[in-house]
Every structure is written in C-alpha cells, then in structure tokens.
Specification:
This protein is mainly α and 701 residues long. It has helices spanning 19-36, 47-56, 60-65, 81-93, 97-122, 125-136, 139-145, 151-171, 174-191, 199-209, 214-241, 258-271, 307-312, 374-377, 391-394, 398-409, 421-442, 456-473, 478-501, 509-521, 527-551, 571-578, 588-596, 610-620, 639-647, 664-673; strands at 321-325, 331-337, 346-349, 605-607, 624-626, 653-656, 674-676, 696-700. It has 26 helices and eight strands.
C-alpha cells in the first residue's frame, strides 16, 4: 500500500488550488520555455510536410487528400489528421516551420497535466509530479515536439485515450470504452499503426481492472475493436473508393491505394527490411549525346563523394548533421553516412538521407537485407536502447524505470479483477513501456530515432511509480533505501557510460555524483530529504541533455536529441544551417528562370521527387510535379504522361538526374524529345545526387 502523501502536497492555497497544481503549472511553463527556446533554428522544419501544408491550403481537394504539392500529383505518405491540424494553424498564422510545429509543441505541453492526473489516479500526487517532470525533460520528447513530424500530436491523442480507458475501467461504462477506441482510431489517422503500440496495455487495464463480468468485458472489447477499425480505416476507404484519376497518387503505397500504404510502407516495412539492394540511379543523357546509344554518364562525373563532403564528416559519426559548400557556392545540408565500398563518412545531401521511411541512396543499410537506418537507431537487439546512437533519445532514466516495473509487480497482492492502484499503474504504464521497448528493439525495418517519443509518457510514469513505491517502503524498511540507492547508482553508471559514447565531457556527472553522495549520507538523518536528493542526481544529465538539444543545432528533417560534443558542428557551419531550411537554400538563379518562363503553364517544373521539389513549393507556392513521390520510387507519372502534359500546355521544364527517382523510360524520353538548358547543367539544384551528379534542367516542347 502507498503511504499518505507528504503534508506539503496536502495544504490548500487560495481558491482550492493545491501546491501540486501550482507545481504542474510550473512544469508546463518550464516545458513551454524549453520548446520555444531557440525555436528559430528549426527553419522550415521538415520541408516535405511543410510544403504539403502549403499545398493543402490551396484547395479543398488538396486538403482532404493531403497532397504533397499544389498540383495534387501525389499525396504525403501519412494519413491526414495530423496534417489537417497543422494546416489549420498555418491558415491563421501563415505557413512556416514554426506554425506547423506549434500544434506539436502545444500537444507536448498539454500532455503534462494529463499524465500527472492519470499517474496520480493510481499512485499519488508526488508520483504524478515526477512523471510529468521526467516526460518534460526527456530529450526526444522536446526535440520531436519542436518539429512537424506529428508524433507529438499522436502521443497527446494516446494520452487522451489512456484517460478514457482509465474511466472505462473504474466506471464499467461502455461509453468511455468506445470513446477510447474512437480516440485511438483518430491516432491511427495521424501515424497509422504506430498508434496501436500502447493498445495492448489499454485493453489489459480494462480487462483485468474492470469489475464487470469476464464475458461482458470480452463482448464490450469486441464492440470497441469494431469501432476502432471503422474509425481507423474511414479515410482510407473513402480515398480508395475515389477513382484514381480524380485524386492524387497515394505516395509510397506501391499500388496507388491507402490500404497498400497501411500494410506495406507503413506496415510490414516497419517490421523488417524489405530492400534487397539499391541500384545506382540512371543518369539522364547530356547535351550532345545520342539518345539512340542509350543512357550515357555525364561528362566529368566524379565517382564517389566530393572532397568537401568527406571533410564535413571528418570528425563525426554516422547520422550526425553536416554541411558543406560546393565550388559553385551552393550550401549542402545533410547527414553523415558511409557510402558503399568506402570506410569513410561523407556528408550526404537531403536526397540521400533516410527520411520518413525511405532508405538512403546507395547506403549500406538498405543493401543485402541489412538493417535500415542503423546510423539513426542501431542494430536490433536487447541493448539497442542502451547503446549509441539510440540511447541519447530517452534512455537516461530507462534503467530505473525498468527496475520500477519489477518493483510495482511486488507492490501489492495480486487479486482479480485488479484492485490495487500500483498494479493498475503497472498494467497501463509498464505495459506501454515494455511493449514499445520490445517492439522497437526487435524491428529491423523503417525505424527513425524520433519514434522513441512514444516511450516518454510511460517512462515518466514508471519513474514516478517506482520512486513513490520505494518512498513508501522506505519509512519502515531499511532495505528499500538500499535498493533505491542501488537502482540510482546503476542508472547514473549508465548515464556516465552513455555520455562517453557521444564524446561528451563527464564534468556534468560531478554535480550528479555530489548529489548522490549527499543523498546517501543523509539517509540516517532524513530519508525523505535523502530520497529527494538522490532522485535529483538522476535528473541532472537528462536535464542537461534536453537543454543542449534545444540550444544546439537541430536536425530539421529528422528530429533528434543532442548528439554530444564529438558530433557538434563548428560555429560557421552551425550558423549556416540555422539560417533556414531547404527553402532558403534553393538555387535562386534557377528559380528566377523557371518563374519567368512558366507563367502560362500549370507546373513550375517536374522533379524526380519531393527531395528536390519541396524547396520550390515553399519558395513559390507553385505546383511542382513530384514524378517519383517522396523518395523517387513511386510511379506517379510515366514518360507518356509527361509527353501528354507537355502537349496540353501544363508542363514545360523537367529537372532530372541527381536523385534516386531516375527511371529509364523518362530518361530516354527526355533525351529524345527535350533539350538541355545548358546554363543550368551541373548547377541546376542545390541537392546533389550520388556520385556528385548534378540535376539537369530540360526544356520540353
């Protein structure tokens, strides 16, 4: 049983406001300040989604189908709800990286009182406060909310769903259960199957905790599941029933259906690597070549990354943000990867960086069935969350949280249906945490590091539950204090190990160690003071890491926690990246030329993928045809489609090469039917392709 709460949490202030509520408000204000600090550094945020929001505001059709570009050629590879919410904010505030990220920031801050109230329900106010604060200072929680990837919104919806399942468990009313299923269905329409990760914990809480009859609980859960499926698939069914020629191509689906997207790219591809080896993209023919001789390599093409790309990653590790300047003056922003057949890191531009579920071009992680995105998330295994590169995201207090799961199991006598608050908390929060840890540790498919935000609420809750459990035992059991010290030492030991992995100075371990020593020595004087000080020692490094996450340069495409000193950028590079996102790096000469020569046609240009087109959408708001969708692999248009669009006066310019979306039929058509705009050859775009092949601009008539 949990002992009475400390008296300082019981005293009422004015208007019935307790000190605990004041502290929750303080945590919310502190969290909002963290989220807003250095917010200008996010630039355009993830340009793929920001360009989609700009496109969605141009027509109701674009809005409903979540078109990736104003011409409505292809959709974003995500369901609509999160982008709908971001579009509403952008409608009133204007399209910018800040306006489309603001819904996620607010979701993160508003999730704090939700988590507090739910943890308090089964434990006490102290546990709720600790849970809320731990979530607020989890690095990936802040980093991901300061972006428009929509994972922050998903976590907020899942917290709302957890609250309704608690209400259903305590009241036994079907209404609350159905509302919970409805909210999870809404979450599915934000990030699809990712929303189902905590569902086993939700169902288990109701099934084992509700006092309803077992058969009735099975029946009501069946009804809730039917509603969940209906809500989850509602948009997908409507879109798939719409004729293909009356809507955009469904991006990343493979078969132009939302169902294909759900079960393919956003389903099976998340579980295991499905790529068998990437072929190097074909090069479009250059001016002066004979198209009948087949595809010819561009003259002067350098096989391998340029020296500037190698220099930019000389002192970095895989996945680090990087930047370099080309001889023509263009600035390339990207991440460090290991090119094939090389043992050196090179700075890969945005078209080659794994984003939103696409494998990097020619990256070794996508070849031969290897683990995709291992430079972000490491290899599958039980130590995935405890080793570089994933450990920096949310694992700083994970050892203590896992110990807390075990402690909660022995917190009370087991009785069915579950009556003790600690066991209900264990089922809900421990189940949520363990499900995500096991799932993400096992998968070898599409897994980005910012998905770790899914663990933040459960991590905070279990830290709070474990602390209060030991706090209550410690009043009359000396071994509880010894166990608390041991769990804290293990946690601090892991934090020290993790800091060394990222080349970070251990200087910040000094205050943590001092607090630990003060707490241990105070055990014989005041256990409550000692417990508070020892808990504070475990919070020093997560707080430092979170502050550095917002103070240092962010990865605007793939939000991530601070990468440590060895992965930091020098001042000049950091300033250059923070100056803005892809829209600020667009080739202005090319943009001016295209705008001046396309006033009488629909499309500004056709491009291989969103990687080379999103910046033009953000700069102009004009339709830009993404011929290959997000990563260049979609069959959005064929060579015949392009020829028809040119004949209809809808399209005049095609940018091609230097992207993973190159296709032989289109390349052959360009060589036979279009001419190269020579003044833009090899300097046509700021995104360079593999082998330093530049994008070539074609004029088609």
């Amino acid at each position: 049983m949990i002992t009475p709460q400390p008296s300082f949490l019981k005293k009422n202030l004015f208007l019935g406001i307790t000190p605990a509520i004041v502290l929750v408000i303080f945590i919310m204000a502190f969290s909002f300040g963290l989220h807003m600090y250095n917010i200008e550094s996010i630039g355009d945020a993830n340009a793929y989604y920001t360009a989609a929001v700009k496109s969605m505001l141009q027509s109701w059709s674009n809005f409903f189908f979540v078109a990736a570009e104003p011409g409505g050629s292809v959709t974003v590879d995500k369901p609509p709800l999160g982008l709908w919410i971001e579009a509403v904010f952008a409608y009133f505030l204007g399209v910018s990286g800040f306006s489309v990220s603001l819904p996620n920031i607010l979701a993160g801050v508003l999730g704090i009182p939700l988590l507090y109230a739910m943890v308090k329900k089964y434990m006490d106010e102290l546990a709720g406060l600790i849970a809320a604060f731990v979530m607020a200072v989890t690095p990936v929680f802040v980093a991901t909310n300061r972006n428009n990837t929509m994972d922050g919104l998903l976590v907020f919806f899942l917290l709302l769903a957890a609250w309704t399942f608690i209400k259903a468990t305590e009241s036994g009313k079907l209404t609350w259960l159905l509302l919970g299923a409805f909210i999870v269905g809404l979450g599915f329409n934000i990030k699809m199957m990712q929303a189902f990760l905590p569902l086993p914990a939700f169902y288990a809480l109701y099934f084992f905790g509700s006092k309803e009859g077992w058969l009735r609980k099975i029946f009501t859960l069946g009804i809730a599941t039917v509603l969940l499926v209906v809500v989850s698939l509602s948009w997908a069914v409507v879109v798939d029933l719409t004729p293909a020629d009356s809507r955009p191509y469904i991006g990343s689906s493979g078969d132009n259906t939302v169902m294909g997207l759900i079960f393919g790219h956003n389903g099976v591809s998340r579980l295991e690597s499905t790529s068998g080896g990437n072929q190097a993209p074909l090069s479009a023919p250059m001016a002066g070549t004979n198209p009948n001789q087949g595809l010819q390599p561009q003259q002067g093409t350098r096989q391998g990354p340029p020296q500037q790309a190698l220099d930019a990653c000389a002192s970095s590790t895989q996945g680090d943000a990087c930047s370099f300047t080309q001889p023509n003056g263009n600035t390339i922003n990207g991440s460090c990867i290991t090119p094939p057949n090389m043992n050196l890191l090179a700075c890969a531009p945005q078209g080659m960086i794994p984003q939103n579920g696409q494998a990097p071009v020619d990256a070794p992680n996508g070849q031969g069935g290897g683990t995709q995105f291992s430079q972000e998330t490491g290899e599958p295994g039980i130590f995935r969350f405890f080793t570089q590169p994933l450990s920096k995201q949310m694992s700083w207090l994970l050892p203590f949280a896992l110990v807390s799961v075990l402690l909660a199991f022995f917190g009370s006598r087991i009785k069915l249906p579950i009556e003790s608050g600690v066991h209900k908390a264990l089922i809900l929060w421990g189940g949520w945490l363990l499900t995500c840890v096991v799932f993400f540790s096992a998968i070898s498919g599409i897994f980005h590091s910012y998905y770790a935000i899914m663990l933040a609420p459960a991590l905070g809750a279990m830290v709070g539950v474990g602390f209060v459990q030991l706090w209550s035992w410690g009043s009359d059991r000396n071994w509880a204090g010894v166990l608390f010290i041991a769990a804290s030492v293990v946690t601090l030991g892991f934090q020290s190990f993790a800091m060394t992995q990222y080349g970070e100075s251990l200087w910040w371990m000094l205050p943590a160690g001092i607090l630990l020593m003060v707490g241990i020595s105070s055990m014989v004087i005041s256990k409550r003071f000692a417990y508070a000080v020892i808990l504070s020692s475990m919070l020093v490094i997560p707080m430092y890491w979170t502050f550095m996450t917002v103070a240092s340069n962010p990865n605007i495409n793939l939000p991530t926690a601070y990468s440590g000193q060895q992965n930091g950028l020098d001042g000049a590079n950091r300033a250059r990246i923070q100056a803005g996102g892809p829209a600020s790096n667009v080739n202005q000469e090319l943009l001016t030329y295209l705008e001046a020569n396309t006033q009488d046609v629909k499309y500004l240009a056709a491009v291989p993928s969103s990687q080379s087109g999103a910046s033009f959408v953000l700069a102009t708001g004009r339709p830009v045809l993404y011929m290959g969708g997000f990563g260049g692999q979609d069959e959005v248009v064929s060579a015949d489609d392009l020829a028809q669009m040119v004949a209809n006066g809808e399209l005049r310019f095609v940018m091609y090469g230097g992207d993973r979306g190159n296709k032989a039929d289109i390349a052959n058509w360009l060589g036979a039917s279009c001419s190269v705009v020579s003044e833009f050859s090899n300097t046509a775009a700021n995104n360079q392709g593999p082998g330093n092949q530049a994008t070539t601009l074609y004029l088609c008539k």
